[in-house]
């Protein structure tokens, strides 16, 4: 959905965390992406392609979807607080 509605590359979508999502103003801030390091056989977090940190305005569909998803995750965190692990 992020690729279709916001034009994000796969690695950019994988690099997102909730701190990058502004649910009040409807924006996504791209600050990092995930890439495969074939030499070391691991995924690494790197700056976006061409160091293009940028802000993307969400359309209403993805904005509402992300609001619902954040609420769902917050409820789950409360319900399983003793088992919840934040990395």
Relative strand content? 15-25%
For the terminal residues, how far apart are their CA atoms? 25 Å
Helix content: 25-40%
Number of domains: 1
Overall geometry comes to: flat
E-strand count: 5
What average pLDDT do the residues reach? 91
Report the radius of gyration as a whole number of Å: 15 Å
Q: Ranges with pLDDT <50 over ≥5 residues?
A: none
- Structural class from helices and strands? alpha+beta
Note the main sheet. Answer: 3 strands, antiparallel
Give the neighbour order of strands across the main sheet: 1-2-5
Topology readout:
Elements: H1 2-6, H2 10-14, E1 21-22, E2 27-30, E3 33-37, E4 42-46, E5 54-57, H3 60-79
Antiparallel strand pairs: 1-2, 2-5, 3-4
Describe this structure in words.
With 87 residues, the protein is α+β, with helices and mostly antiparallel strands. The chain has one domain (2-79). The chain has three helices and five strands; from the N terminus they run ααβββββα. The protein has helices at 2-6, 10-14, 60-79; strands spanning 21-22, 27-30, 33-37, 42-46, 54-57. Strands 1-2-5 form a three-stranded antiparallel sheet, with no helix packed on it. The protein has a two-stranded antiparallel ribbon with strand order 3-4. The longest helix is centred in the last third of the chain and has 20 residues, at 60-79. It is flat, with a radius of gyration of 15 Å. The protein starts with a helix and ends in an 8-residue tail after the last helix.
Fill in the keyword field for this structure.
87 residues, alpha+beta, three-stranded antiparallel sheet, two-stranded antiparallel sheet, 23% strand, flat
